[in-house]
Automatic annotation (TrEMBL):
Belongs to the peroxin-11 family. Homooligomer. Interacts with ARC5 and FIS1B on peroxisomes. Coiled coil: none annotated. This is Peroxisomal membrane protein 11D. It comes from Capsella rubella.
Length: 236
């Protein structure tokens, strides 16, 4: 039987494992960034300074991260995936990879290494449009995949007839995937609003405070998605 100390060690090990991930640290900083944006409401002050400094710091975490989506772009897709979903998925990879690549130039500009500020700002705006486009693609992919899972789950229900569907391992696995994709759908849809806010496409409706609120929520969702699986510990 595990002692309280064993449980504490296991929990602390999970925290260490979580914080060792560069992606997790990036999302935690993202939560701070957008939380500060919400508090500042676009007004000068301490909160806005935290927003700007955290935004710049996060770009370091994303150096060369564009390679990940570049790899996803050229990787084969699972068999049986409908062509529209394949094209949307590859478009997402291409747009996100472009966003992350251009974001490095923005970082160089804001750090003072790249001297052409006007071009850096232009590339920064283009990169945000790429991120917005990738979020749209992700949203459509998630909708399509949730539809496929729903259809598959209905077939399992019919096959079980009078059996308890929640006792079927395959059904539970698909239900878990469906819930995960539903959460990803909410995040990607909200990120479209965040991108529109950063681009100031509708400044009267999507204010800095709205952008901050949506960004903070999607950051929390991202942090949750990165949580490691908790091991089962027998307690006395």
């Amino acid at each position: 039987m595990a002692t309280t100390l064993d449980v504490s060690r296991a929990e602390l090990a999970l925290v260490v494992m979580y914080l060792n991930k560069a992606e997790a640290r990036d999302k935690l900083c993202r939560a701070i960034q957008y939380g500060s944006k919400f508090l500042s409401g676009g007004q000068p002050g301490t909160a806005q300074n935290v927003d700007k400094s955290t935004s710049l710091a996060r770009k370091v975490f994303r150096l060369f991260k564009f390679v990940n989506d570049l790899h996803g772009l050229i990787s084969p897709v699972p068999k049986g995936t409908p062509l529209p979903l394949v094209l949307l998925g590859k478009s997402k990879n291409a747009l996100l990879s472009t966003f992350l690549f251009l974001d490095q130039i923005v970082w160089l500009g804001r750090s003072g290494i790249y001297k052409n500020k006007e071009r850096a700002e232009l590339l920064g705006r283009i990169s945000l449009f790429c991120w917005m486009g990738s979020s749209v693609c992700t949203t459509l992919v998630e909708i399509g995949e949730i539809g496929r899972l729903s259809s598959s789950m209905k077939k399992i229900e019919k096959g079980l007839k009078n059996g308890n569907k929640y006792q079927d391992e395959e059904y539970r696995a698909k239900l878990k995937k469906s819930n995960e994709r539903s959460l990803a759908l909410i995040k990607s849809a909200m990120d479209i609003v965040v991108a529109a806010g950063l681009l100031q496409l509708a400044p009267k409706k999507i204010t800095p405070r709205v952008t901050g609120a949506f960004g903070f929520i999607t950051s929390v969702i991202s942090c949750y998605q990165l949580l490691p699986t908790r091991p089962k510990i027998k307690t006395p």
